[in-house]
Amino acid sequence: MLLARWLGPETYGNLAFLLGTFAGIRALLDMGSGAAFFTFLSQRPRSRRFVGSFFLWLLAQFLVPLIAISFLFPDVWVSSIWNGQPRSLVVLAFIAAFMQLSVWPVVQQAGESQRRTYWIQGVGVFVVALHLVAISLLWVFGVLGLYAILGAVAIEYAVAATIAFGRLDFAPADGDAFKEPLFAKYFKYCLPLIPLAGVGFANQFVDRWLLQTYGGGVQQAYYSVGAQIASIALLATVSILNIFWKEIAEAHHHGDHARTSALYKRVTRLLFFVGAAAAGYLIPWSADLLRLILGAAYVGGATSLAIMLLYPIHQSMGQIGGTMLYATEHVSLQVTISIGTVIIGTCMTYLALAPTTAFVPGLALGSTGLALKMVVTQLLSANVLAYAIARTFKWPFDWVFQPIGLVGCVAIGYLAHAFIVYGLPPGLSIIARLALGGVLYVVLVAGFLFALPSLAGLTRHELVTDAQIVARKLAWRGAR
Questions:
Q1: Which of 144, 152, 234, 302 would you label with 189, given CA atoms 20 to 30 Å apart?
Q2: Residue 384 maps to a domain
């Protein structure tokens, strides 16, 4: 958010465009091998050789595109693909994206597979804090620009990955990586994912490219800011996802189907409700949040933000469902559903973003259109995935909690917003209004959840007990 404010919509949009395109390229290079790596790590302890063999594959993923972009692609290709950005900046963006989105996640997964969650996520928090300090210093000294930002990202994550990896423990060097038919094991797991990697790359790249081409840097910034703020609702999902993956992979490996079922249902409901609760509070305040955090230049993206706040709700469901299938090695099912969704989504992107004067006319909706497309496709994808999982594992399709939880939280959010806006003196600052609205919203949502605790996958007794435990821990920490 500081970068968005300090750089302005146009420059920040270019930064988001570069990193967004390389996020898509990263998916193409990975071809599902990262999911296979973490699944195999989670099943049982692995040796340093096993992990080292995967890092050789990562090195190949890094060198091939680096050489191609740096030396082999003609200037006209680079200019066309990245909308006129200079080659040196494109190369640096690739290095930064690779360190952040490929190298660091592999080290993080290795730590999670050993249940070193506090350590590995602690390092991640330190990196983010260090980055905040770095960009603040760059801004203070007047040298904040895309080259400096991307260089800082590349160095920070490379150093963090090196330090974190050195602290991990591995099984004895028993030839683990060579006694097993390792290539065949990866190939079997990843083969269905290769088409998905190609289609997924096309979808991610086309989304960003079309928005940059037809909307420009400002619309790119509106969409990216909306996605960033909406990601607040994914904090719980991101924190728990690798833990969930590890536990599901282990339970399935040992044939504990009851534990697999219980974990999947509870985590899905809990994270859906967390996302709905976050969206319910933030949506009515969209314009005020943008004005407060980023300034008047970003208020034009209020509609995009309000729509994007709905995206993480079903995204968490989709991530849990996808993790469930990866961890239980039902990869083909995940691929079939994802490819169908991606194809539909890519067509929707064009229709939402293309100008009305194009040969195949679109709606020219800019960031709002891309946000709508993301929400609709995610809702469809998550529910098709949940239905397929229910059929595969012979469970009932669990869906009623979705409309009840989402509509309830959004309605409570608008009720709390209306009370604050129309029921309190107009002279209150926006920060005071947000705070008071938040307190009222939390009280109302707590009552809603107490009335229907199953929306979060809990019983009323579990809800009360968990609340008491949290209260005691907070009181103890306050006393210290």
A1: 234
A2: no
